[in-house]
Amino acid sequence: MKKLRYALTALVAVFALVLTGCSSSSDSAGDGFVGVILPDAASSNRWETADRGFLQAAFDAAGVEVDIQNANGDKEQFATIADQMLTAGAKVLILVNLDSDSAKAVQDKAAAQGVPTIDYDRLTLNGSASFYVSFDNEAVGRLQGEGIKACLDAAGKSSARIVYLNGSPTDNNATLFKAGYDSVLRPSIDSGSYTLVDDQAVPDWDNAKGGVIFEQQLTKAGGKLDAVVSANEGLGLAAIAVLKKNKLNGKVCVSGQDATVDGLRAVLTGDMSNTVYKAIKAEAEAAATLAIALLRGEEATTATGSVNNGTVDVPSVLLVPTGITKDNVKDVIADGFQTREAVCEGIEDLCTANGI
Questions:
Q1: Are strands 131-135 and 313-319 parallel, antiparallel or unpaired?
Q2: How far apart are CA 239 and CA 349, in angstroms?
Q3: pLDDT score, position 25
Q4: Which residues fall within 8 angstroms of residue 160, CB to CB, at 6 or more apart?
Q5: Residue 73 has what DSSP assignment?
Q6: Would you state the pLDDT for residue 206?
Q7: How far apart are CA 272 and CA 297, in angstroms?
Q8: Cα(247)–Cα(250) distance, rounded to whole angstroms?
Q9: Within a 10 A sphere around the Cβ of 208, how many other Cβ atoms?
Q10: Three-state SS across 202-217?
């Protein structure tokens, strides 16, 4: 019996140490964690290949616990993940919305529990986010429009037939991108120099739908187009696939955004005239900095701008995008966002010719 009593006493002691260790770990994490909900992996591969890793690294460097999950394009799943995070003790939520209404519902529920939220990359209209972290998205669109115009000018096309292949109508960023590129191209459209043959939005940024819509646009144009103003590289590459089938790739200016490996390769091959690089590492670090300040009850001093979400002015961090053509693809690689090996595989001569 003595041996059994000693064994039980030892077991209780070990269990107490384990519990103490768990409690200490929780305390060191700041009595809670930060939850991050990414939108999908289909509209752009950036969410899994870039944002997830950069966000994880930023929180790891600060010794703060983070739970990063992806809603995979499902608004119900988005809400479920948020509920689970709040139940598990999340003290801050970072959200990339699928649309404003569903994200606002999550923000309202979080606010009722005293949990602040941060809009990441996409603004939630009429929401209650404490902060917004993104790029100047109208500036992104202006760069897209300027790249298209420069491509048409370089080809000596003072008159041109163009189409708009816009992003999701439920994404406020898509609205801002369009406002940006339309502000550049509208004067030429209004003067009659450019003909806007068609102007379509792509539901949910779905690249497959984008390809179908563009095929219809090309048919509407009678197969004669000079430019495709596409809101991101996924849509631009879908359009390029259609152009290739019709032996028109490289003959039509096509814009993009996100500086993915495939997008940069398309720029180098001439299938895509221009894209936009957004330094996602800086965006992720800015969001993490704000979330950590909220978690620790500290004053956040990095949100020096503001954006109105339709209800209130949201303190914001707005980063500066960079337009990319063949001439400066090398800058994206030098910044460490993509690797030379991935971009240049099979097109080594083009990389060398462009200083990569």
A1: parallel
A2: 25
A3: 29
A4: 152, 188, 193, 194, 195, 226, 227
A5: T
A6: 95
A7: 46
A8: 9
A9: 11
A10: CHHHCHHHHHHHHHHH
The secondary element (H helix, E strand) that includes residue 6 is helix 2-28
Check residue 8 and give its pLDDT.
32
β-pair partners for 315: 306
DSSP state of 321: P
List of E strands, 202-312: 227-230, 253-254, 275-277, 305-308
The domain segmentation of the chain, as residue ranges, is 32-129+279-319, 137-278+325-353
Question: Cα–Cα distance between 257 and 136 in angstroms, integer?
Answer: 13
**Residue 35: both structure tokens together:** 């939850």
Distances (CA, A) of 142 to 44, 46, 80: 20, 21, 37
Q: What is this structure's pTM?
A: 0.84
The per-residue DSSP string of 134-191 comes to EE-HHHHHHHHHHHHHHHHHHTT-SSEEEEEEE--TT-HHHHHHHHHHHHHHHHHHHH
CA dihedral 329, 333, 338, 342 (to 10 degrees): 80
Question: CATH classification of 32-129+279-319, choosing from 3.20.170.30, 3.40.50.2300, 3.90.79.10, 3.50.50.60?
Answer: 3.40.50.2300
β-sheet bridge partners, residue 163: 198, 228
Question: Which residues of the chain have a pLDDT value below 50?
Answer: 1-30
pLDDT per residue over 155-187, tens digit each? Answer: 999 999 999 999 999 999 999 999 999 999 999
Q: Across the strands, what pairs with 131?
A: 118
| H helical segments located in 29-163 | 46, 52-62, 75-88, 100-112, 137-154
pLDDT value for 6: 31
Q: What is the pLDDT of residues 62-110, one digit of tens each?
A: 999 999 999 999 999 999 999 999 999 999 999 999 999 999 999 999 9
**Topology of domain 137-278+325-353, per CATH?**
Rossmann fold (3.40.50)
The pLDDT value recorded for residue 157 is 97
Residue 198 backbone phi and psi in degrees, to 5: -160, 155
